[in-house]
Amino acid sequence: MRLSYLFTAFLAGLSIASPIPNPGPAGAAELEVRGHRGGGHGGHGGSGGKGGKGGNGGNGGSQPAGPKIVETEAYKAAHAKHSGLKENDWYYFTVKTPLGQSIPGDAETKTELQQLQHRLGFEHIAVVVGEVVYTESGKGKKHHTIKKDFKATQFDMVKSPENKTIVRSPNWSPQPQKTLAYGGTTTKSKAERAKKNIPKDWKEEHPEYNVDTNSCNDFVQNYIAHL
């Protein structure tokens, strides 16, 4: 009995001392498969990110080409002398006729012209007053166009055959043979008031031409002073 008991106790001791076996290859494989399944599902969720390709639609949402810009000859001439032209703003320029060119409608004598030429250095002078106007057409369409214009009036004074003062105010259009020079800015109210009053007032105050006190330059300088 004693030997049997000792043998049994010995076997029990061996069992307790034996370490717990690690999971075999099959167990490890099962853990790995489980891990892949869990991560795989997350990866499929990431595929949903493909919806982000819809962002390519952004190419279709690119900004359309800007409008076509058309500039009139009057705008080009004014802009060449003052690059800061702005829509709806008012400006004035002087237009000088170089020496040797005739002035249509002017009855100044050769002697009077020579006196002016000697004093002023040019044949004739006028003042041009106008507004920068933008006109849009085809807005919202493929043919969207903006036309830039300088709508201006030219004011000058000449002598009649009867030695009377004549004030003229035609619409202005640039003439390459004449010299355009930037004068400055003004306002709509000043420009309209000058256009309405100065020609009439000047003729009343200076009914007759005088090379020293009532020449084209005297008129223009007075006009500019009111802008």
TrEMBL record:
The keyword Signal is assigned to this record: yes
Segment forming the signal sequence: 1-17
Keyword terms: Signal
Source taxon at top rank: Eukaryota
Compositionally biased tracts (Gly residues): 40-63
Segments for region (Disordered): 27-67, 182-203
Compositionally biased region (Basic and acidic residues): 189-203
Name the record gives this protein: PPPDE domain-containing protein
Organism: Talaromyces rugulosus (Penicillium rugulosum)
